[in-house]
């Protein structure tokens, strides 16, 4: 029987993203056949008994969901401080899923969920250059030369950002509405880019992720992806 890496199998079963599963293993929260698992350990699916925080891991049918994430909600599968998370809004979904990437607490808009670890890993990996479209309300009046800087890449503390697409949708003396299309998934990337060019973000809304949108969904509502949307996601990452 073929063995697979434990964290990969856990992600495929919808425990969490592969990176988060690695953290669970490091923290000693995963048991294989009753013994504390080690990072890099291999298991035989269907033979080895795996538990996470004393709960058995089983593989469910693959599920793909999009939510219109409301503001002031944490994007995480679990929170140790008892704060409200996006998982609290998935009422009626009887299969365990995890969010694909993260949105800051105050950011709203498109957030994908799945229990397909391989797809989630590829969607989050920068090498696949998945489009993420944002509407950013920023302070001040943005000039055309500033747009060029955003498009060419901004030097942040963790290096240069990849080229982006930027456009002014609405200009005012105090606030400008920008449309930004990014291909990376760095932490707080949009906010850091805008702050670096002198226009801090006042409000941020993600309107599309890999062409998936949330039209018709109110904040906090979710729906399963259509077959065509799922096929598009698989095509984006070469699956």
Your description of this structure?
The protein has 239 residues and is α+β, with helices and mostly antiparallel strands. The chain contains six helices and 16 strands. Strands 7, 8, 9, 10, 13, 14, 15 and 16 form an eight-stranded mixed sheet that branches. α1 packs across α2 (18-26).
Core attributes:
239 residues, alpha+beta, Alpha-Beta Plaits, eight-stranded mixed β-sheet, four-stranded antiparallel β-sheet, 16 strands, 21% helix
Oligomer: single chain
CATH topology group of the largest domain: Alpha-Beta Plaits
Mean of the pLDDT scores?
Answer: 90
Distance between the termini: 24 Å
Summarize the structure.
With 239 residues, this protein is α+β, with helices and mostly antiparallel strands.
Question: How are the secondary structure elements laid out?
Answer:
Elements: E1 4-5, H1 6-12, H2 18-26, E2 30-32, E3 35-36, E4 42-43, E5 50-52, E6 55-56, E7 64-69, E8 98-99, E9 108-114, H3 117-124, E10 132-139, H4 144-152, E11 155-156, E12 159-160, E13 165-171, E14 175-182, H5 189-196, E15 201-209, E16 222-224, H6 227-236
Parallel strand pairs: 9-15
Antiparallel strand pairs: 1-4, 2-3, 2-5, 5-6, 7-9, 7-16, 8-9, 10-14, 10-15, 11-12, 13-14
């Amino acid at each position: 029987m073929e063995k697979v890496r434990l964290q990969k199998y856990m992600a495929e079963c919808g425990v969490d993203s592969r990176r988060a599963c690695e953290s669970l293993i490091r923290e000693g929260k995963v048991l294989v056949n009753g013994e504390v698992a080690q990072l890099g350990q291999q298991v035989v699916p269907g033979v080895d008994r795996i538990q996470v925080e004393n709960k058995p891991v089983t593989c469910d049918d693959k599920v793909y969901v999009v939510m219109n994430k409301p503001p002031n909600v944490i994007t995480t599968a679990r929170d140790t401080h008892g704060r409200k998370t996006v998982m609290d809004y998935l009422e009626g979904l009887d299969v365990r899923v995890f969010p694909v990437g993260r949105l800051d607490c105050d950011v709203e808009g498109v957030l994908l969920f799945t229990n397909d670890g391989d797809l989630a890993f590829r969607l989050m990996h920068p090498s696949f250059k998945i489009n993420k479209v944002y509407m950013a309300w920023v302070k001040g009046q943005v000039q055309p030369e500033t747009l060029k800087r955003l498009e060419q890449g901004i030097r942040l503390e963790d290096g240069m950002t990849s080229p982006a697409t930027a456009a002014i949708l609405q200009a005012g003396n105090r606030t400008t509405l920008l449309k930004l299309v990014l291909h990376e998934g760095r932490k707080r990337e949009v906010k850091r880019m805008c702050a670096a060019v002198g226009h801090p973000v006042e409000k941020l809304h993600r309107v599309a992720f890999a062409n998936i949108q949330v039209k018709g969904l109110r904040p906090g509502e979710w729906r399963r992806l259509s077959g065509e949307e799922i096929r598009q996601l698989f095509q984006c990452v070469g699956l």
